[in-house]
Write a structure and sequence with these properties.
Elements (H helix, E strand, L loop, with lengths): L19 E9 L12 E6 L5 E17 L6 E3 L8 E8 L2 E7 L1 H12 L5 H4 L14 E2 L4 E7 H4 L1 H5 L4 E2 L3 E7 L7 E3 L3 E17 L1 H12 L6 E14 L7 E9 L5 E10 L18 E8 L2 E3 L14 H8 L1 H6 L10 H6 L3 E4 L5 H4 L3 E9 L8 E16 L5 E3 L3
Antiparallel strand pairs: 1-12, 2-10, 3-8, 3-9, 3-12, 4-11, 5-6, 5-10, 7-8, 13-20, 14-19, 15-18, 15-20, 16-17, 16-19, 20-21
């Protein structure tokens, strides 16, 4: 909003941003065979070190063919199908691992459900999100060819948080194709999926001469002048194969160092037969008769008070409030726009633990992360799997002169 006094600045010169000469998209392709099969490891390297790359806005372009075994039976690409084509995606800089996404399909499903709202659904469709039997917009049903893109900011916290250009360092993207494509479709019959094209498309940032000279002068000084520090939030997915047949269960997830403090934990429950099953939607979660979930970071507990949920009686507002409040805490939004209303949330719930505010005493030590689950029933439902997506701090520094990369701010 223009202030009252600013309305009198009528003689000020207009400002134009001419700091960039060009911002063109370039395509990088994998080395080796152009044929991609289940469990193959695909590497896309970038060896040129005299470039400034816009990694945050880069994306993986995918093209393939989807052929049901019986054209007269119902069979279609399922929600988030493109992400389920892969078992793991890794991004490296200077030989150091910056981000690794295990089970990208599950990870992006959980993150998208809590991060995005109705306004983003049209954009998400090109990522494979929102596909249904009636809505197959990325698929040509005549030729059976599908295509779409997976932006890196959709896949990993590094690209979502660090939006500046990256210069003078080698980079590599590694994709491991899924062992099975049965999580990519739903229907009455099996289908064959072929991946014919995988490309990494990145914009090259070319600054105008004065900006380029300014960058080069800083880099050529070397030492601390050439060091670039990056802080971002990593997404790590953990899986508990099944809950025990008790009314209370404790899951000791991991022990981490003080630099990788968890900020949010997103928890989802599924039946163990949801995966690799064309009759069940792997992007659907269940409430598993949960009454309370608590996170222990050493001796600190989150949330402070118990939720005392009862989904059967629609006593679930505490869990929904944590869900709708995620965007406010994580992105700093004043007006949150959750993807699901409370009725939809009951049918497909995700439970969010906000542990972003921690005591200083805990920050100087290692952190043990444990989850405690409680149910009002005698036992948890049989064959219930638990996913926990931990969003934690991560730090990286690289030298723009020699391209070396170090974890932490060394």
């Amino acid at each position: 909003m223009t202030s009252t006094s600013a309305k009198l600045d009528v003689f000020d010169e207009p400002l134009f941003d001419n700091s960039l000469v060009s911002l063109h998209e370039h395509t990088y392709k994998p080395y080796g065979s152009p044929y991609y099969r289940n469990s193959d490891e695909i590497r896309i390297p970038i060896h040129f070190q005299d470039l400034i790359l816009d990694i945050a806005e880069s994306y993986i372009y995918i093209q393939g063919k989807f052929t049901p075994s019986d054209a007269n039976k119902v069979c279609y690409l399922s929600n988030n199908a493109l992400a389920f084509l892969f078992d793991e995606i890794r991004y490296e800089m200077g030989g150091e691992q910056v981000a690794v996404i295990r089970k990208p399909g599950v990870t992006t499903t959980m993150k998208t459900m809590v991060s995005c709202g109705q306004m983003q659904l049209k954009t998400l469709l090109s990522y494979g999100w929102g596909l249904t039997e009636e809505k197959q917009d990325i698929l040509d049903t005549t030729t059976h060819v599908f295509s779409g893109k997976l932006p890196l900011k959709y896949l990993m916290g590094f690209a979502e948080d660090y939006t500046r250009g990256i210069l003078n360092t080698k980079q590599e993207l590694t994709l491991i194709i899924a062992r099975s494509f049965k999580n990519c479709y739903l229907g009455e019959v099996d289908a064959d999926i072929e991946i014919n094209k995988i490309e990494w498309r990145i914009r090259h940032i070319v600054p105008e001469d004065r900006q380029k000279l300014k960058l080069l002068n800083r880099v050529n000084k070397g030492g601390v002048n050439a060091k670039i520090k990056m802080a971002y939030r990593m997404w790590d997915l953990y899986e508990l194969p099944t809950l025990r047949k008790t009314a209370t269960d404790i899951w000791a997830i991991k022990t981490t160092n003080s630099l990788e403090r968890p900020r949010y934990i997103i928890i989802g429950f599924q039946s163990t037969d949801s995966s690799d099953n064309r009759s069940k939607d792997v992007t659907q979660f269940v409430h598993a008769d949960i009454s309370n979930i608590r996170t222990y970071l050493n001796s600190e507990v989150y949330p402070y008070e118990r939720w005392n949920l009862d989904f059967g009686k629609k006593l679930d507002s505490a869990a929904y409030y944590a869900y709708e409040n995620f965007q406010r805490g994580f992105y700093g939004k004043d007006n949150c726009e959750p993807m699901m209303d409370i009725g939809e949330f009951r049918k497909n719930p995700l439970f969010i633990i906000d542990c972003s505010h921690q005591q200083d005493a805990m920050k100087s030590s290692t952190v043990d992360i444990k989850l405690e689950f409680e149910t009002r029933e005698k036992n948890f439902p049989e064959n219930t799997r638990v996913y926990a997506l931990i969003i934690h701090d991560a730090y990286l520094a690289y030298n723009a002169l020699d391209g070396s990369v170090h974890n932490g701010f060394k």
